[in-house]
User: Fold this.
Amino acid sequence: MSVRNSLLAILASDPAHGYGLKSSFEESTAGAWPLNVGQVYTTLGRLERDGLVQAEPSEEEGPRQTWRITDLGREVLEEWYASPVTSDPPARDELTLKVLLAAAGDDVDVSAIIHKERTATMERLQQLTRHKQKADPDKELPWLLLLDALILKASAEINWLDLCEERLEHRAQSKDGGADGR
Amino acid sequence: MDAKADVPMLAFDNAARVYGKGDKAVRALGPVTLEVMPGELVAIMGPSGSGKSTLLSLAGALDVPTEGRVCIHGKDLSQQSMAELAELRRRVIGFVFQDLNLLPGLTAIENVALPLELDGMKLSRARAAAAEALNGVKLSSMADRFPDDLSGGEQQRVAIARAHVGPRQLMLADEPTGALDSVTGELVMRLLRQQCDRGRTVVLVTHDAAHAAWADRVLYLRDGLLVAPVEAALPSSLAETAGRA
Ligand SMILES: Nc1ncnc2c1ncn2[C@@H]1O[C@H](COP(=O)(O)OP(=O)(O)O)[C@@H](O)[C@H]1O
Ligand SMILES: [Mg+2]
Assistant:
């Protein structure tokens, strides 16, 4: 997560002091990525050095100081919004790693592993969906958007596990048949 | 019918469906043992050909098991007369399929009222019950439209209203969200969930994990058999991830 861009995004709507930035950020992101205030001040320091934010004049120094975004800051933020997020190479998540290694192994019951992982993911998905059922779309939009993201990721994980299982079954069948001579 | 809370709404006791005989026999399902309690929403997932539709047909008394028993609210279906089965299908069980089977020549409200009228209910009472059911799926304003003048999602909501109109307690849905976009699919899932929270029972077949997750329980069929559930004790990880209590 880019703390720099996140702070710029918050400051783009309104000037704020350090603690206000932290709470606006957490409110907009449904509390999913807690920030500590120290991190906020360090980042503000770097943003100021780079000319992306500036302290409001005539204010006292220290935590009560109010910060505003500069024109350069707005440009950098717009660039961030305009460039699609790429995540190449694939994130080395543990599930993918585990299933790939299990499939490559000799005496591993991959199907049992897949089933267990799928059950766990489905339980997580059910939990998320119960939260979604209770969420108020008018008052808790960031929370709902976050839940949608987590739900779609978990359901993609399940689709992937199903696909793995199907492919492994194919492999098992062609091994049993021995017909393809591999 | 009043659903007693301790009697399963639907029970499979080693039920199986085998097509054909001898060498050519195909075991489409089973043996499957399963209990669904009143008010439960159960989702069935599984690859294509794993027996999901067969299971729903047995549950809905559209087909009979070649082995074992299927009971609805404690009644063994094999012990019911044709007339009693027909009555179960009219008064207790509602179906929602992917292709909706709405009659194109009838308006939304007429489609919903039809099962009640066929059941001998007076027209005015059937219409009143249909209006209430349409209201339940937030379609009151479209009651007089014909199916062709409704969107896919609206048609599916009419089908859901028709499946639960009147006293019916058990709803069987085969891929009801299959043809819908994700927003409309979610709306349909919310409606099914609502039906359960009000005491109705739903068995839903879906290949969409995000839709299955609206269920209380998710079962997997594989080659006609339920995959044994595994224990996957989870910490309540979401609260931690999202910083919420
Ligand atoms: N009338 C039938 N005659 C023979 N086999 C059938 C018949 N209906 C279904 N089957 C077989 O039973 C299995 C399960 O089918 P079905 O319940 O439709 O699966 P699903 O709904 O999970 O895709 C499949 O292998 C299918 O070919
Ligand atoms: Mg099917």
Summary: Residues B 19, 26, 28, 46, 48-54 surround adenosine-5'-diphosphate (ligand 1) (CB under 6 Å). The domain at 1-92+169-181+200-245 of chain B is CATH 3.40.50.300 (Rossmann fold).
